[in-house]
Amino acid sequence: MPPGTTRHRTLARLRFGCLLLLGLLALSSAGTVGWSGALPELHTPDAPGSPSTPVVAPARAMTDPSARQVPTSSGPDISYTPSPDASVTAWSNLTNSSANPRGSSGPSPYVPAPRASPNLVFDAADGYDLLFGGVGGWVRATNGTYVPGHTALNDTWTFEDQVWRNISSSVGAVPPPGEESMAYDASDGYVVLYDWSAEVPVGPCGAYNLTTHTYDDDLANCTWEFHDGRWTQLTDPTPTGVGGPEGLTYDSRDGYVLAVGLYPHPWTFSFRDGVWTNETHGVQPDSVQAPLLSLSDDPPAGGAIFVGGSSTAGTQLTTWRYSEGNWTNLTASVGPSPSPRNGTTMANDPALDGAVLYGGHGGFALGPSLNETWVLGATGWTNETSALGRSPPPLAGAGLAWDPGEQELVLFGGIDYPYDTDASPASDQTWILSNESLPGSLQITATPDPADAGAPVNFQATFSGGVAPFSYAWAFGDGNGSALASPSHEYTSEEVYTVDLTVRDSRGSSTSAQSQVQIVAPLSVSVSIAPDPTEAGINTSFVATATSGSETVPNSTESTLTEVWSYGDGSFLEPGGLHPYEESGNFTVKLWVNDSGGGAYFDEWTLWVHPSLGTPVIHASSFSPVFGQVVNFSAAEFGGVSPYSYFWAFGDGSTGGDLPVISHVYTSNGPFTVQVTVTDALGIVARASLPLAVLLNVTILGEWSAGAAPLPITFDTTIHGGDPGYAYQWAFGDGGTSPLADPTHTFTTPGYYDPALTVTDAAGHTAQASWPVYIAVGGATLNVSLTASPATIPLGGYTVVTAAVSGGAGGYTFAWQGGTGACVLQGILSERCTGTTLGSYPLHLTLTGSQAGTGVASATIVVVEMAVISGPPPSPDWIAIAGPVALVAAVLVGALLLTRNIQTRGGRGGSGEDVNREYRLGAATTPATVENRPVKKGAVDSESPSADPMQDLV
């Protein structure tokens, strides 16, 4: 059994063995009879409420035919050459274009899989051609008939702007694979699909079994709509009790979708407002005359046109018109018609003012497929095959639809039926039928021109006319070429090149043109960023120096080098220049340079922006040094770009070297201002200053520190700092005063005194110093005694040993001996001893008057351990009464005698580390040391006098 018509409907005819037998018997007697005569007036008065003009979708922007950059398809060569000035209607092959590659039936932009009997209509509501379903191919069975060889399909595709897109994944519930007919319902505003034999039952719909070729349900039908990209099954499944329709079309004359079928008898239904209505009455197209048919709206003919017939039906193709609910046989009035054939496809073409019929195969017994194109126009049938030039391959059961936006017929799929093969692969070719002029007025544009060597030159061909697809043959003049419509090419040498182009359309017509392009020296760019790195707040310079041959070509079009900088902080500048960064951090700097010759330069850098150079922080070891004191200075710097350099000015005329830490001694009076200047690696300068005063300082030395009354003492004064022009004011503590710098004063009354000096300089600054003195009762025998308080000390504890002196004359000289080895002169006549070793230690003092008498005294110091408590713990009652009391018991462990010979004279005491020390209370002889300071004339620090005047002599 042959594959059926456009909608692949003949499977249902298997129930009619007699009809098949009749077709086979008539095959040998089939012939074609020429028809003549004018087409009668087909336009009848409009029926009330019915449209009289075809319903056309809103116009879309048309695609420029010259822009269809698709390779020429492989097909039979043609010899037809139209006249150069003709404007012709022609078939064009869009198969396997760059926008619709073969090899996959997946998502766009691929071509739908090969198939026969696809449902193809223009969806005016959604604005594209809609394709659904079909069968993937046929094979020859053992009995010589053809049966389906692949599973029926139910994928959904769109074809818009000559690009296929698979939308199957987004259409929701979808009609099952099987046998369908489809048309756009202009009255209801959606695509309607009638599914009459599904491979599996769907809802109330029955199913046709493709294996047994029987119906699972005699009421095998269901109706679907497609709108807004979604399929929806409608609730009204009628018509019922009939086989599959041979075709569906929108009848613009009557304003509804028309369905026509032949099984189990000729029938006609209409579909409007979602409801099927049985229109079967009166004369119907005869099933014997037209068992395999095509159906199309044909407004110029005044209604829908139905054609059918095969070699089993006689020697001619029957032509019927449906208008205002009635069928009329026009076969005798339309002139010579196409030969009897099966599996034709038909659609209305307003541009040709008639219905176009394509293909089919010769007869019911699967004769060879045909590739004829016929048009039913105002004068009847016309064979336009030779006038159209190149045609699609012989096909039966192809999909055909008029696209009003593109003003072209779209043909897809179908199948060829050869006699001598056992398999007939289905087609995946896409063809369009449109009215086009021959290619002409070809112009070549090169951009840019002149162009830089190494930069891409973009070529564009502009021409009019021709039938897509077009082939291009470029020769760039340097031995290279291209077959692209708009190629890009890079030249390597500076020269003027001649470019040739030949454009050929799908009919074999061609046109050629020639042009020139000048290639010049390439773009060259050098970049300078300074300083790099930089710091916040200063102007950083960005300079790009570019040269290009295209800028020096005489009479070239106006062009400039374009330069754009991105500084990485959100700022742009065109061209570069000075830019200050407000904040520090890492910034990505980018540069774009373009010239008129197509040269392009881009580069980027990371620029480190340091914090701004801050004010140095100066620190001095003393902010008020005394005269001759060493002062250490340091400068701490932050920000800027290291390394730093330093310059010091100390304020007294002296300067320092390139050091962050430096020392200076002031030998002249102040005050002074110290300044440091810091320069970073970028030459940025920061300064800081510090006020500094060299203080007025006075020291005094007394001839004696202790002696018997009356005792004369001479004082020696030393002054540092301040402003010269000093005034002296002495107060000796016994009521006596003096304005002299170095006075002598006699103390007559025993006691402790603190002679003090106040010095005032010319600026009014003052300084003070004092010299403690002890005066004993004189004139009797020199007598001395020692008292240790306490006499017994724990290990690590200390005691103070004090001498009581009377008698004698003049100043005293005294010597200490013995003790624990850790005794230090505490006052003029006292020592402080620390117990460092267990034992008993005698301490001796020998005192000699400067004029007469000697006295000796001794004391013993015992060093014991801390007591250790043993035995049971005290009772809780005793603890509660006694509270937290620390108990210490002294354990005597004996005495260790150490001898210390001490001679003391006019000093402040001695170091505890000396075993033998000499002191003299009276006339100054050999200086002693007190904590590493000179004792002769007892220099006293006027900045920090002790609270105990006697301590200052220690």
The low-confidence runs, each spanning 5 or more residues with pLDDT under 50, are 1-86, 200-204, 207-219, 868-954
Q: Strand pairing plus helix content: what structural class?
A: mainly beta
Shape designation: elongated
Mean pLDDT: 75
Total of helices? 2
Strand content: 35-45%
Outline the structure in words.
The protein has 954 residues and is mostly beta strands. Helices cover 2% and strands 43% of the residues. The protein is built from two helices and 74 strands. It has a seven-stranded mixed sheet, with no helix packed on it. A five-stranded mixed sheet has the order 31-37-36-33-34, with no helix packed on it. Strands 39-45-44-41-42 form a five-stranded mixed sheet, with no helix packed on it. A hairpin with a 4-residue loop joins β26 and β27 (408-412). It is elongated. The N and C termini lie far apart (138 Å).
